[in-house]
Every structure is written in structure tokens, then in C-alpha cells.
Amino acid sequence: MTKNLLELHQISKSYEEELILEEISxxxxxxxxxxxxxxxxxxxxxxxxIMGLLQKPTSGQITMNGxxxxxxxxxxxxxxxxxxxxxxxxxxRLISSxxxxxxxxxxxWFVRKEKEIVERAxxxxxYFELExxxxxxxxxxxxxxxxxxxxARALLLQPPLLLADEPxxxxxPALADIVAGALLQARNQGTGxxxxxxxxxxxxxxxxxxxxxxxxxxQVK
Amino acid sequence: MxxxxxxxxxxxxxxxxxxxxxxxxxxxxxxxxxTIYQGVSSGIEISKQRLGADIVIVPESVKLEPSLVLxxxxxxxxxxxxxxxxxxxxxxxVRRATPQFFTxxxxxxxxxxxxxxxxxxxxPKSDWVIEPWLKKIHKTELKDNEVILGAKIPVWxxxxxxxxxxxYDIVTVAEETGTTLDYSLFVSMEEARxxxxxxxxxxxxxxxxxxxxxxxxxxxxxxxxxAKIETxxxxxxxxxxxxxxxASDIKNRINNQFTVLLLFVGxxxxxxxxxSLFQLFSRFYTLTWERQAEWGLxxxxxxxxxxxxxxxxxxxxxIALAGSLSGIIxxxxxxxxxxxxxxxxxxxxFIQPGWQYMTLLSFILILFxxxxxxxxAWLPAYQGSKTDPGTVMTRxxxx
Lengths: 221, 399
Description:
- The complex is a heterodimer of chains A (about 220) and B (about 400).
- The longest helix of chain A has 16 residues, at about 175-190.
- In chain A, helix 3 (about 100-110) crosses helix 4.
- Chain A has a single domain (about 5-220), classed as Rossmann fold.
- Chain A has helices at about 45-50, 75-85, 100-110, 115-125, 145-155, 175-190, 200-205; strands at about 5-15, 20-30, 35-40, 60-65, 65-70, 85-90, 160-165, 190-195, 210-215, 215-220.
- Chain A is built from seven helices and ten strands.
- The mean pLDDT of chain A is about 85.
- In chain A, about 35% of the residues lie in helices and about 25% in strands.
- By secondary structure, chain A is an alpha/beta fold.
- In chain A, the strands form two sheets. A six-stranded mixed beta sheet of chain A has the order 6-7-8-3-9-10, sandwiched between helices. Chain A has a four-stranded antiparallel beta sheet with strand order 2-1-4-5, with helices on one face.
- Chain B has helices at about 1-10, 15-50, 65-70, 85-90, 130-135, 190-200, 205-210, 230-240, 245-290, 290-300, 305-345, 355-385, 390-395, and strands at about 55-60, 80, 95-105, 120, 145-150, 160-165, 165-175, 185-190, 215, 220-225, 240-245.
- Chain B has 13 helices and eleven strands.
- In chain B, helix 2 (about 15-50) runs antiparallel to helix 9 and helix 9 (about 245-290) runs parallel beside helix 12 (about 355-385).
- Chain B folds into two domains: about 1-45 and about 255-395, no CATH class; about 60-240, no CATH class.
- The longest helix of chain B has about 45 residues, at about 245-290.
- In chain B, a hairpin with a 2-residue loop joins strand 6 and strand 7 (about 165-175).
- The chains are: A alpha/beta (about 220), B alpha+beta (about 400).
């Protein structure tokens, strides 16, 4: 039996009196892509944040590789994030003082893998057709290019778990295909991929599709 | 991590430059003021020890500022009769007195040693200023072809020096006094008079005032411990045509003038320091809020709270270090310019502080400012390290 990468056990989240997520349980296995769709403001990004140990749930447990992670201290959670989770945020979230290559290398700096990883950063940027932009600054790139840089950054350390928040939002169909292709390629290489999206085509490409409605996760596919 | 710090500073060039300049100015003023104050204090102390005169007597017609007479060595080629010495020695309360003869015509020679240097003839029978330096080389007096160089006269490797066509043996170099004695060449009284007598430019002076052999420029005087210096100065002036300059008065006046001046300039320096610190504190405090999403991203990517604190403190320390280092360099320039400017308006005893003092002062200032930089960033660093990593999902775009 394949060990679960990530397990959510009855995760609830409320802000003040409002319940956003209600006792959600979910398992993510390596090499699986899961799409989560739902209305805007429905709690998709909150759920993704909890999965990525960026927010604490109001109740419930998160297990990563069999380790109960939600009650760990900040330092240990940061270590798990750095080593095991790749993030693609809704906005590209690039540091404007750094070059494109440096932005991609950023996660490696925090887990101290600087030297051996430069070549991989260049390969990823080349895959996303940005090899000529290595020394440019984010403000010199288009929105689509920024998204691809953010994706390259998330894939740099080949994390076992990849969390993507609206990765194809605002992209034209051709670019959206490139991004989707990269996510599914990561899935094919054994990464567990969770995609929060409004894009039905992208959701359709995932192995499992859930819809978040009124705080509950309903399986569509 | 250091690259992140460096890139962030470069990205905010103008803000960081403003901080560096503010810190630099504060450090420069403090460095300049502290160095000049140290130089003047040592100068006054050393001149007290090595000049050793309570009163300096010059002809009444010498209208120069007393400080110029005492520390500037200027004489206006105005002389008095050598018999004045006997009258002075007879004043009750005078412990000892010694005459000196100055000439400043040392620049007409092919071996020009500079117009600021003067020849000073001393009287071996009564002198106590030159005597200690002679004792060190086991001599009792200088021969006519021997000279002692002041501490700041350029060193002559062949141990000989030519003055107005005559070669002299350099017997020793005097210790630094912080006065223009440092720019003097000490010879016997008779030799100084002979050199002055031969000087064609001074011919008119000797015609008016008499032959140099009968003249002296100044008398240095020490009083009995029980005597009152002011009373003796008044007695001396009553002898007529003489001007008595009380060394301690001039030194105290200079000391007070410098204290006031340096307190004023130092006060401006302190205000600059406070302003730059305020700027540093406020800059790093607002930075926590401005860059919360950035800290959130770092935390999401695996940075620990400690990494965030290290980045914030690293930026503050780098800016403080750059500011204080540039302040030291600027302070060195400020010190030189201030010294030249002050010297142009006022003669004062000055001993240039040694490298040890300057290095220690620089080290203390750098340490102080870097420490304050770290302190300024401590609270923002603490707050930054407590940033909720979830802010990366919710906050707006980065700067």
C-alpha cells in the first residue's frame, strides 16, 4: 500500500463566527494530481494554506509522511515547508530586488543547497523558455513569464508535494497549457500535486477533482 | 542570506543612502571633534611640560596675539636689549629666566628648509628648555656648528644641514611640544645672532635697533612656587617697554575656547547622531509592515524565524557599518580641514593624536553605531520573525 504524502483529518477553520472549512478529510498520494474548484471566497486558498502549513486549522490534524505536522513548532514546520512542499501562489510573488535566476534559487538558499542547484534552476527556466531572462528583474517580465518563474521556483527542489493556487489564472490558453503540462509532468515524476483552480480544463486533467461548497469537499471525479 | 541582504539594500538605494549619509555625518563630526580635542588637550599638556615657562616676555611693540607669541613663534623682528634679562632676574619672586633670540630668514638658502621654520638661539647658562635634550646626548651646550632640530623639521639622513650657506651637524631631534618649537632649529645664542647679523634683509632692523649681539627676542620666566604670577607679570611690565604674557592664561583661554567650540560642534554631531538613529529606528520599524508579505514568502519557502531576523538585522548592521566606515573617512577629512581652518585663526598647541588613538576611536565609533543599528533592528526583527507565513497568500504585491 502506498504511503500517503498528506492526510487531512477533519480539518475545520473558522474566522470569528464564520465557518470556512468544516471537518474536511483528504489523502494525497505521491504521483497524484488533485484539483479543487469552488466559488470565489469559498475557502479554497485557506484550505491550500492549511495543507502547506501556512495557517493553523481551528481543529483537526494534518499528517505529512506519517508525521503529525499541525502541532509542530514553527521551526519544524518551516523545515517541512522548505524540504517537502513547493508553492505556486495566486500572484507570482517574486522578489523585485533579485534576478529571475535568484528568485528561482530562493528556496534553495533557505535549505542550504546553493551550489548544486544552480544548474537545475537554469534547466527549469530553459524548460519554461526563459533562459534568456536569467539576469532580468521581475519587473521586466510579463505576467505569463512571472507565473512560469514562480512555477520554476516551486519545482526547484523537486518537492514531494506541490501546492498550486490558481496557477493558470490570467494566462492565455497556450501559456496555460505550458503551466498545466509542467504540473502534470511533476505528477508523473512522483510529486503529489494539489491545484486550486477555476479552470475546468485544468481540473479535468487532474486524477481527482473535488469541489469545495459551503466548507465541505465534494468529490466530482 | 547575505546576498538577500545586499540585494535588498541595493534595491532601496536612495533610502539606504540617506541612512548611510546621516550616520556618516554624525560619525564624521564626532570623529573630527574628538580627534581635535585630543590633539589640543595633549598639546596643552605637553607644552606645559616641555616649554615650562610661566611667563613669556617680549618687547612691548610686539602687537601679536599672545597665543601667537606663545605658540606661533612669531616675533615681528622686534628685539629688546639683552640687559633686560638682568632687570627681570632682579624682580622678586622670579625663580629663573632665560633669553632667546629668533630669526626667521631661513628660506633664502639653496638648501631651503621652508619659510615656516625659524632659528632659535638659546643661552646655555640659564636655559632649561633645550638642556634636557642635550642631557640625553650627554652634552652641556651646542658648538657653533651644531644644531638641534625641532620635532617636525624634516629629518636629514646625512646628519648635516645647510642654513644660509653654512653646514651644521645635527646633534639630536627635539621631542614634540605641540608648539612652533617643533618647527625651530636650536642653535647657540651667539650663532643665531651671527646668522641674523649676516642677513641682508634684516640690515635695516639692526640699523634701527642696534647690533644683534646686544639684542634678544624673548625671555622665558619661571616664578617661585610661593609667588603670584599675575603680580610678577605686573612688576615686569612696570619696568617699561615690555609685555608679559602669562602662559597659563593663554592656555586656559585656548582650552576654554576649544571646549566651547567643540561642545557646540559636538552638540551638532550629537543631534545628527540622534537624528540618524531616529531615522534608522523608524526605517526599520516601518520595514516590518511594508515587507510582511516578503517575510511570509520566505517563511513559506522554508526560512526559519531566525533567518528573517537575520535578514532584517543584517540589513541594519550593513547600513550602520557602511555609514560609520564612511563617517570615519569623512571624519579624517573633516579633522584635517578643521585643523587647517582653526590654525589660520588661532595659534594653539597641538599634538597630532597617534594612530593608536585614531584606530581605537574608529573602532569604538564603528562598534557603537553597528550595535545601535542592530538594536534599531531588534524589534522589527522580532516582529518580522513572528510574521504569520499565511500572509504570503493574503497580502498585496511586494515592493
